[in-house]
Amino acid sequence: MFAKRSMLQTLVLGLSLSLLAGCGKGGSNQAAVQKTKADLSQAGSVSGVVKLDGTAPKSSTIEMSADPICSTQHKSKVDSGEVMVKGGKIQNVIVYVKSGLEALSFDPNTTKVTLDQKGCMYEPHVFCVQTGQPIEIVNSDKTLHNIHALVGDKTLFNLGMPQKGMKLDQSLSDTGVVTVKCDVHSWMKGYIGVFDHPCFAVTGADGSFTIKNLPPGKYTIEAWHEKFGVQDMEIQVGPKENKKQDFTLKSQG
Amino acid sequence: MNYHKGMHWLARITTAATFILINAGGLVKGTGSSLAVPDWPLAYGYLFPPMIGGIRFEQTHRYIAGTVACLMVWLAIWVARSEERPWVRKLAWAALGAVFLQAVLGGLTVLLLLPPAVSILHATVGQTFFCLVLSLALVTSKGWLEAPPVRVPAGGRDLRLPALAATCVIYVQLILGALIRHFYAGLAIPDFPLVFGGVLPPAWTFPIFINYIHRVWALVVASGVVWVFYRAARWHRGLPYLYRPALLLGLLVTAQLVLGACVIWTGRDLFVTTAHVANAALTLGTSLFLTLRAHRVLGRADDPQK
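Structure tokens for the assembled complex are given below, as produced in the milestone run.
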């Protein structure tokens, strides 16, 4: 019942869209860039560790009493997941090629990635996809969530998921780091790195990352973290070279 | 003209409910709950969704809005059937049209994912509807119907133009406030009363520009209200019908300036920001109230046929 738009909703949307067509957002005027297909026969990789300079602030704990269904799923206090640092190594850092790949095109990735709303938290907290890559959003909770995706203040989509087991398929076409949040449960926050190439990674619990299938060339690699900011590094990758590159982000606290 | 007590009290109740609705709307925005209910007019497909998290704020806002709409329908029908003055009947129909427009805008702003133009229009029409229903409550009151004409004392100055001017500049300030809110420019200039430690911003972005204009326009509003209060105190102190709302207006604008500063100093604390929105509605309402009263008594002295 929920998934189908009501007739009234459709009528209102249709009228409004026709009214707002004149003052709606204009289409992109970006000139199309001629791209050549990436040759991966001599591809190398970049790997390293992302470390923290300074003392890791305490990750905040979450108060879930706003929804008893959420609070009863956790026996102890829940960590927000914002600061996952062990032995000075940072988890959940998005490491990606920021520049150097503009002239290349890559095959689209059709592997479905799952974003689960479980225990009123997002699993995974941070992940990356290529533009157009399918994302399956699942509600594993017996409560309702809305999945609200934004880039900055701009909402990409906002969909209600009122039932356990409900699944929605989405894909993202805007590159950048997309924030996903639930307006019902204000503590729920996740991040999706969206890129028009496959040269990205998310650091694991040991802070390590590996970006594979990187054609030889000169690149700017960026490490992004939701709390510790960004760091850019210039690297040169030779044919079939496994380049080592570590990052150090500064503690804000 | 007859005084219809029941109709007048319904107008008062509708006005009060509208004020509560404006506050509820402010809370929706302030708590980030604007999209907590992604569909409209239903909520997750239900009439009565579970009131959890952000849904509490958004759905409560919708329930109050529905109540206000029902009250306005009732009031419009009552006015149409009982009111002798054609212009008051037209005022009631205008208010009814505004409340339905407001409902559609509220739905659109959710369905279209908060486009700033629609959200700002929703905020502005909300304040406009508040003015319309407040006017209805005033013009159906016994005080209005029985108010005697008043001449401006010899050598004195008329209050009507300053009151109208103050109302207009306050209305503009509310629109600027809505622009700030819906373009997330509340802390675009992070300090007060200085601007990045000086008088002018070092750079002009759109959020900084509208934040700066809102501050400058606050001085225009303050000047307008000082003008109103001066004339009321100088020439109409002995007439509570005009002096009291002028005094209240002065107090509300002073409070609004303080609250505006506190919004910055507290980093947009929810309570302070909501109070700033609520006080803005009260300030506009009081200024309009005074303007209408001034026109009622001073205008009739010019033209006894009114």
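The first helix of chain B runs from residue 5 to 30. The interface with chain A takes residues 31-42, 44-46, 49-50, 52-55, 58, 104, 107-108, 111-115, 117-118, 184 of chain B (CB under 8 Å). Further analysis is deferred to the final report.
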